Amino acid sequence: MALPAEDRASSPYTGYTRAHWEAAADALLAAVAPYATPDRAFYHLPGDHVSHAGHLSDGLEGYARTLLLAAFRRDETILGRYTEGLAAGPGGVWPVIEDRGQPLVEAASIALALRLTRPLLWDRLDHRVRERTADWLADALTARPWPCNWELFPVTVGGFLQEIGHRPKAAREAIDRGLARIEDWYVGDGWYTDGDGRKFDHYNGWALHLYPVLHAWLADDHELLSRYGGRLSRHLADQAHLFGGDGAPVRQGRSLTYRFAATAPLWLGALTGHTPLAPGETRRLGSGALRYFLDGGAVDERGLLPLGWLGPDESLVQDYSGPASPYWASKGFLGLLLPPDHEVWTAPEEPGPVERADRVRPLPAPNWLVQSTRSDGLVRLHNHGSEDVRYDPYYTRLAYSTATMPAPSYDNSVIVGADASRTGIEPLGTGEGWIASRHTVRDGITVTSLMLAEGAAEVRAHLVAGAPPATPVRITGWPAREGVRAELVPVHGLSEESAGETGEGEATLFVALARLTGEPRPRPLADLVCVEVREDHAVCVRWASGAKAAFRFTRSYGPSAAPSWSVTRE
Predict the structure, then answer these.
(1) What is the rounded CA–CA span in Å between residue 374 and residue 356?
(2) 238: closest CA among 228, 250, 248?
(3) Which residue of 152, 351, 358, 511 sits 20 to 30 Å from the alpha carbon of 93, by its own alpha carbon?
(4) pLDDT (tens digit, 9 = 90+) per residue, 153-204?
(5) Comparing C-alpha atoms, which of 211, 263, 258 is closest to residue 236?
(6) Does 454 have pLDDT greater than 60?
(7) Beta carbons of 336 and 25 less than 8 angstroms apart
(8) Strand, coil or helix: what is 6?
(9) Residue 513 · residue 529 · CB < 8 Å
């Protein structure tokens, strides 16, 4: 995708100005225009995959998600294309909004776009078109959402309908109901779980923070904005650490095909004044992500965003994915709501956290540990607290990064017998340079894990309990990828192939060194860390920096008299 060359040298980092963002938005919107139906009510983008919602819903998705991009762009000519669709779609050819149906999701994008551009679009519509559109949207107020971030779609629709005075009582009830629901999932420190359980991923930023903060800001509700804006600011203090030096977001969680939508909360913090980040750092992180995807080939030869990451990738396709699903990436253009003279656009870019220093940052709420290295710009996320209800490689692996995708061969896993399952994850804590958790492989078999890190080096210790003697155990590390080096070195209980077996006792300890690095000639791992393993299941670590740490796996008994293993720092 060609972008204007002006001011590219104004920053030593991305060189992206507001003009580059505008040009990128215009190019994306121009590319989808030929795929509109004659009445412009649907955008049927090319692609072999049809979502479980069906072809009609997929076409509505194409309309709604690109309309959201047009709303951020705020160009009257572009918005005019979508006026025709409103005349034909609501109460006509668009599918009805029903319980847990995909049109509920798209209704939120349409309502938000109409609210953001009310003088440019809504206020200029024919009265009958406004009535039909409002009536169609109103079904979202009572439609039952899935118990996750979907609870915020009726909130978003309700905010617009309340503003225009359409069914205000029902709108108010939908807003209050949805906002109350997400309180059940707020775990503190700026983090939500996406529904019951422990589901932490980019949905925190591009949904669970985005919708309530935008609603509070648009409603000019200072009390709500203080609550949700404060949470957003705290979240951004962590999220800023989840972008690599090349701009890539950490590849963890579902819906990664939304790509640079991960930058939406960065811009939202600047827009509402609830951010700990300097203006130049916000632009650096946001523009870095956009440039990473555009330069990396995320846009195909037709100018479209296919299902995938840097290019088409079927491993990222989920049952709810349609050809236009990637256009939730439109949320990444939220920064265009900031005027050209805003300091985010005028201040010099400042480096992000990964570019300033090596860091090992604990995130207690999701029980993650973020490990980043300045020399290669890599960010690694050690996951000891996030899972999905089913085995999902984007939730259940021990680690993720900005440079690697989960491999089909169970990277970053502990495989007991032939079982790589990791369910019932119980966080056991995290702190400076370490993190621990316990999970279930299957009934009666648990793995208690400890990871310590300094620089790019990692010490991984796993205590397998409940497995019969001589059960095979295999430890896996980072997946191989061009441009980075993945290493796994056995230390205790493992062969050179990082395989071993359980002993006669109640539990068996396995320890290995691991590393993912982009350095061409890194120092040997053995020069960076020394590990001693004692008979009492203690692991003592001495780093090349001189820092030391010692942890012991300890046993306790619950009401069922079954042993449970934890990790104690000595």
Answers:
(1) 6
(2) 250
(3) 152
(4) 999 999 999 999 999 999 999 999 999 999 999 999 999 999 999 999 999 9
(5) 263
(6) yes
(7) yes
(8) coil
(9) yes
Q: Could you report how far apart the first and last alpha carbons of the chain are, in Å? A: 55
The 3-state DSSP class for residue 556 equals strand
pLDDT for 397 equals 96
pLDDT mean over 266-281: 98
The tokens describing 145, both together, are 């959402």
**Paired tokens of 129:** 């078109």
Distance CA 38, CA 429 (A): 57
Residue in the block written with tokens 């619950």: 558
Contacts of 555 (CB under 8 A, 6+ apart): 506, 507, 563, 564, 565
- Closest among 160, 158, 162 to 175, alpha carbons compared: 158
Domains of the chain: 8-354 (1.50.10.20), 357-569 (no CATH)
Query: What are the structure tokens assigned to 66, written together?
Result: 């690109």
Characterise 424 by phi-psi region: left (phi > 0), alpha (psi -120 to 50), beta (else).
left
Q: Which tokens is 544 given?
A: 């090349």
Extended strands (E) in 409-537: 414-416, 423-431, 434-442, 445-454, 457-465, 472-475, 485-492, 499-501, 507-517, 529-533
Residue 560 φ/ψ, nearest 5 degrees:
-85, 0
Write the CA distances from 344 to 273, 280, 525, integer angstroms.
Answer: 11, 6, 41
Question: What's the whole-model pTM score?
Answer: 0.96
For 26, other C-beta atoms within 10 Å of its C-beta total: 15
Tokens of 379: 């960010």
